[in-house]
């Protein structure tokens, strides 16, 4: 289906980096779908499991403002982009706008089910406040790291059906649709960063990329775990009982954070590019499931 992005060069050009550029058709498909307009998800929509539900609902609560930040970060660095990258950026923006719209609808359902996102919103607001006045390349590096996180999660969600086993079908389709498009556009922020920093020394580009991934990882894990625990507390699950169940869910079974670790560590390779891992086959399989749903 969609081939790797055109700007898949030998990443950061640090010593020993001799990989040739990849060339291929870069097609992002903007699927203007809508979910949950006639019914709202149940409070524990993911197999009746409050822990799994809390993790994914906490993620969704951050998406609308996070995706707006991604859009602005990429657009701020697109000047002079080659035509194909410019086209990819346009489709990236359209996909992210649709994701924002659908997660706003999903989030309204969670609020109607009785959840309170006040603390989650405060975490997102605090992180976005740190981006004000920063150089655009720094914000783009943060976006690039977060896009790698979303691509890793998307791959895992599509590759391992256990993550959404027993979930309400329309909500599962929302996440399936979102995951498809996250995989499709997983290289857009990376390639925009390559373009925006094309005159930098390779080592400077690599250092910023790695440093921002470390910062993003610390903040992402700390805040998303805190957010999930907040939602669990609203369900009356607190203390070590809540922490133990959430950590077991994330690291043991199904263990999404354990499973994505190899992909996370690969990001630090000087020669890394998101399409080193060509997981387009997952898109075709997921699209068939989406159509059947």
Order of helices and strands: HHHHHHHHHHH
Terminal Cα separation, in Å?
20 Å
Q: How would a textbook summarize the main sheet?
A: none
Overall number of strands: 0
Query: What proportion strand?
Result: under 5%
Give the name of the CATH architecture: Orthogonal Bundle
How many helices?
A: 11
Q: Radius of gyration over alpha carbons?
A: 19 Å
What is the 3D form?
globular
Question: What number of domains?
Answer: 1
Structural class: mainly alpha
Helix content: 55-70%
What are the low-pLDDT stretches, counting only 5+ consecutive residues below 50?
Answer: 1-10, 14-26
CATH class: Mainly Alpha
The name of the CATH topology is Ribonucleotide Reductase, subunit A
Average pLDDT rating: 91
Pfam families: Metal_hydrol (PF10118)
Region (Disordered): 1-23
InterPro entries: UCP07580 (IPR016516)
Protein name: Metal-dependent hydrolase
Describe the structure.
Keywords: Hydrolase. InterPro entries: UCP07580. It holds the Pfam family Metal_hydrol. This is Metal-dependent hydrolase. Residues 1-23 are annotated as: Disordered. The structure is a single chain. This protein is mainly α and 293 residues long. It has one domain (50-292): Ribonucleotide Reductase, subunit A, CATH 1.10.620. Helices cover 63% and strands 0% of the residues. The protein has eleven helices and no strands. It has helices at residues 50-75, 83-112, 118-129, 136-159, 169-184, 188-196, 202-234, 239-251, 256-259, 261-266, 280-292. Helix 4 runs antiparallel to helix 6 (188-196). The longest helix has 33 residues, at 202-234. It is globular. The two termini are 20 Å apart.
């Amino acid at each position: 289906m969609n081939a790797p992005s055109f700007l898949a060069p030998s990443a950061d050009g640090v010593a020993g980096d001799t990989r040739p550029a990849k060339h291929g058709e870069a097609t992002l498909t903007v699927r203007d779908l809508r979910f949950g307009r006639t019914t709202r998800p149940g409070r524990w929509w993911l197999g009746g499991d409050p822990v799994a539900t809390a993790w994914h609902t906490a993620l969704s609560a951050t998406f609308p403002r996070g995706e707006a930040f991604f859009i602005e970060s990429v657009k701020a660095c697109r000047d002079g982009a080659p035509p194909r990258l410019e086209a990819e950026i346009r489709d990236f923006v359209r996909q992210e706008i649709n994701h924002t719209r659908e997660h706003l609808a999903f989030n309204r359902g969670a609020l109607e089910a009785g959840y309170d996102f006040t603390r989650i919103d405060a975490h997102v607001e605090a992180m976005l406040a740190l981006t004000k006045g920063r150089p655009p390349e720094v914000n783009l590096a943060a976006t690039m790291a977060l896009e790698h996180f979303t691509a890793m999660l998307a791959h895992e969600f599509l590759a391992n059906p256990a993550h959404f086993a027993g979930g309400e079908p329309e909500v599962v389709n929302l996440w399936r649709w979102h995951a498809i498009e996250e995989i499709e556009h997983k290289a857009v922020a990376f390639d925009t960063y390559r373009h925006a920093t094309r005159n930098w020394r390779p080592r400077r580009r690599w250092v910023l990329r790695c440093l921002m991934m470390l910062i993003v990882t610390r903040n992402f894990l700390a805040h998303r775990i805190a957010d999930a625990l907040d939602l669990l507390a609203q369900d009356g699950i607190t203390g070590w009982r809540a922490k133990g169940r959430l950590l077991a869910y994330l690291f043991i079974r199904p263990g999404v954070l354990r499973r994505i670790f190899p992909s996370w560590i690969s990001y630090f390779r000087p020669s890394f590019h998101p399409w080193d891992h060509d997981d387009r086959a997952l898109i075709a399989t997921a699209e068939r499931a989406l159509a059947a749903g």
